[in-house]
Amino acid sequence: MASLHLKKEKKGGFYFLRRDWQLYALLLIPLTFVLIFKYAPMSGLMLAFKDYKVARGFWGSEWVGFEVFQQLFAKSDFGRAVRNTLMLNTLDLMFSFTMPIVLALLLNEIKGVVFKRVNQTLLYLPHFLSWVIIGAIAYQLLGEGSGMINNVIEQLGGNRIPFLQNDTNWLFSYIAIGVWQSMGWGTIIYLAAISGINPELYEAATVDGAGRLRKMWNVTLPSIRVTIVTLLILSLGHVMGGSFERVFALANKATTEYTTTIPVLVYRWGIEGGNFSRATALGLFQAIIGLILVLLADRIAKKLGEDGLI
């Protein structure tokens, strides 16, 4: 009997493979993409442990171990880049992560279908604009010399405000522009989670005399808590990353205090300076810290009773 049971189990695996071979064949396409463009380039991480010279090539360059990392950590720009990256991404996480939740709750309360769809479409549009375009629009609107907003302020009798030409003002503008660009697109997952809430919960809350705000707090938010925690864990992995395009598009020579971040430093050292070993080491350091943050956040979520990711 035991041997027959084992035979059935082995046959079951091949049975599902034969039955769904079309699905497994389709799976080969994204799997091949991941292997070629995600895992194969990881061999280039060896540059972080070599004194890479273009003339010697990838394999001919001298192996130096952790010497590149020692030089990296001794650079003054490194500490500054880590500080700025953590600060910008932490502020971005505080506002750009919470605003889509608030916006999704508000959109869910709109009863007019046409008005709701029009608003959703308008809110999604900034996500599809490149940061080059957004940066150009930002300077057209917020520029100190000829920005439209400053022109209006001056016509009203006020003084021009250097939104993007002052370090502190640039920081606030950076966060505000990021929230505007991402909050509409970020509501998609939350609205999908809200649509799956059992309507009977809202009916029961109505019977108990709960208003709209009370329903949001006691029904909607607890029902999408798993989605919020999952996205928060994923977002923490980007705290040491950030967007190179966003900083580069909004940066200028007048504001240099907060514009040196890890992605920008990788670009300066690697593309502009040609020091590929140091740039690779910095990118590897960034990836490891991001992985640690994700694993730590997942562990904390499980300790608090959530499902986590792993």
Task: Give structural notes.
With 310 residues, the protein is an all-alpha fold. The chain is built from 16 helices and two strands. Strands 1-2 form a two-stranded antiparallel ribbon. Helix 6 crosses helix 10 and helix 8 packs parallel to helix 14 (244-250). The longest helix is centred in the middle third of the chain and has 29 residues, at 167-195. It is globular and about 75 Å long. Residues 4-8 have low confidence and may be disordered.
SS-derived structural category = mainly alpha
Helical content class:
over 70%
SS summary, helix count: 16
The stretches of 5 or more residues where confidence is low (pLDDT under 50) are 4-8
For the residues shown, what is the average pLDDT?
86
Report the major sheet: 2 strands, antiparallel
Which sequence of strands runs across the widest sheet? 1-2
Strand content: under 5%
How are helices and strands ordered from N to C?
HHEHEHHHHHHHHHHHHH
Q: How many strands appear in the DSSP assignment? A: 2
From the N-terminal CA to the C-terminal CA, the straight-line distance is: 37 Å
Radius of gyration: 25 Å
Shape: globular
